[in-house]
Amino acid sequence: MLAGGVAGLAAAGAVRAGAAPVEAGKAVLAPRPPMGWNSWNSFATTITEAQARETAGIMAEKLLPFGYDIFTVDIQWYEPEASSYTYNAKPKPAMDGYGRMIPAPNRFPSSAGGKGFTQLAKDVRALGMKFGIHVMRGIPRAAVEQNLPILGTKYRAADIADRKSICSWNPDMYGVDMTRPGAQAYYDSIFRLYADWGVDFVKMDDMSRPYDAHAAEIEAAHKAIVATGRPIILSLSPGETPVMRGDHVRKYAQMWRISDDFWDDWAMLEAQFTRLENWTPYRGPGSWPDADMLPLGRLALGERDTRFTPDEQRTLMTLWAIARSPLIMGGDLRHLDAATLALLTNKEVIAVNQASYDNQPHYIEDGGRIWSAKAEGSADRYVALFNVSDKPREVWIRLRDLGLNGPVAVHDLWAGRALGQQAERIAMTLPPHGAGLYRLSAA
């Protein structure tokens, strides 16, 4: 299976310049960019257990053989009345007696009787995958209104809530004032619950913006995960995470969003080039700047297919691959078409994302974007060429600018075929908003 092969390469490779520091004797969480599926782009707040199980089965059959192994239930699985991309102004979330969100039993029947996500997580893992959930920063407002106790302490929800720290777009939570007694105990209690359920991945929202205001809670979540003893990957959302906080964020999380929610809009895609360029110093094992999910295929509660053209879809996958952004599919797998499946499962393109290093941009000319990387276990180079203009154009780079001397053999990864030799430069005429991805070997 490709997943094991590329994972082994990435894990075995030395930590390169720009990678997060690794403490001696400690295994690296997320040694390669995480790959998987997330429910937000296709189900919004509404996914049910039946839909999750159906989707997980499709994912295990069609995507897991190529390395996509993290299955994530996104926001408001605890909201019995969730119905769209709009949040209820006065939610009535499912909670336990300690103010911890639990799956709404009307949507996730296997959670009844206090079982939480235990059975669903077990069944997802039985398919060979990992189980992830989305959570919001803080403590439920409903828990504060009821002033529920904090597990294992004499404190209550109102003692730790910061009622002035609220999310601008979601009404579920208050922030937690980490200077107050009981605050860390609350975070410890929720992550202990997730660990007991068998959760492997937590996407934690309302964290990265404004960053400094939430830094103490980022640290608290990390500390709580460590205390569980379970290797849970922490993904922070949404961005734009400030690049100046790169050293802090890579210390406490394995991936973090570099932008607000990314959707199928060319202007949004073009903007991700600069963001990914800026995050280059912080990319490496256990440390992944996240350009967000792949809005491909059927989206938005089944209302439409992606607005990206075929050329823009290839540009999206090429950029995420060469910049080593996590590859998290967002489209509805129940309607996965052949073209989208082929885009997601090109083994040579996935290998660029999973087993390359020294990934970096090159600045040659306006209208074109160029990235290169080195292939693990080889002297070969990867080169990605992008035409971000609205007309066909030639995009090129000299071999000497890649540190290469002499002729090279060029292999087109998307087409899966050899293109012959080049002696001095790589130059391709690309369609508007188009991209090419190539492997260069000594001729």
Automatic annotation (TrEMBL):
Keyword Signal: yes
Gene Ontology BP terms: carbohydrate metabolic process
SUPFAM superfamilies in alphabetical order: (Trans)glycosidases (SSF51445), Glycosyl hydrolase domain (SSF51011)
Catalytic activity, as annotated: Hydrolysis of terminal, non-reducing alpha-D-galactose residues in alpha-D-galactosides, including galactose oligosaccharides, galactomannans and galactolipids
Root EC class: hydrolase
The entry's keywords: Disulfide bond, Glycosidase, Hydrolase, Signal
Residue span, Alpha galactosidase C-terminal domain: 368-440
EC numbers: 3.2.1.22
GO molecular function, one term: alpha-galactosidase activity
Family per record: Belongs to the glycosyl hydrolase 27 family.
Protein name per its UniProtKB record: Alpha-galactosidase
